[in-house]
Amino acid sequence: YESALYIFGGIEKDTGCYLDQLLRFDTDTRTLSAIWSEPRPQARAYHASWVHGKNMYIWGGAHGGATVGNGMAVERVCHGVVAFSRARHVSSVQALNDLWAFDFETHHWTLVNQFQSEPEARYEAKAAVVANKVLLYGGTTLRLARERERERETR
Q: Is the pTM of this model over 0.85?
C-alpha cells in the first residue's frame, strides 16, 4: 500500500511459532516496523491475502499444535505468539475460516465475517481481485489433508 509492503503472520523458522504480528516494510526508507492493535486476527500461516481500497484482507489459513508422544497437543506462548514443536500432524492443525480487514489509515483490524460453512475452512488458498470482486481459489481443507495423510501411511 503506497510505498510499503505489509506482512501478516507466518511461522517463525527457529521456534515454530505461529505469528500474529503485522510488519510494515517501508520501501523508501528500507525500514521495518511492527504494527500492534487490538483486536487482531489469531496467529496463523498459509492464509490468503489481498489489498482492496484502503484495506488489506486476510482469510483462512492454518493454526495448530503438534502431536507429541502422549498424543496431547502442546502449546506455549512465547513473546505474544503461539509456539508448537516442529513435528506436525494433520490431526493437530486447525483450518481457519475467518475474514479480517486491516485499515491502512487507522491501523485497526476488523473481523468482517466468521464463516460457518461456506467457503469451507482451508489453508494455502490464493486470492485475486478482478473487476472489483475477490476470487478465492484452491487451498487445502482438513478433509483433503487427512485423505492425503492416510494415502501416505498406506504406501
A: no
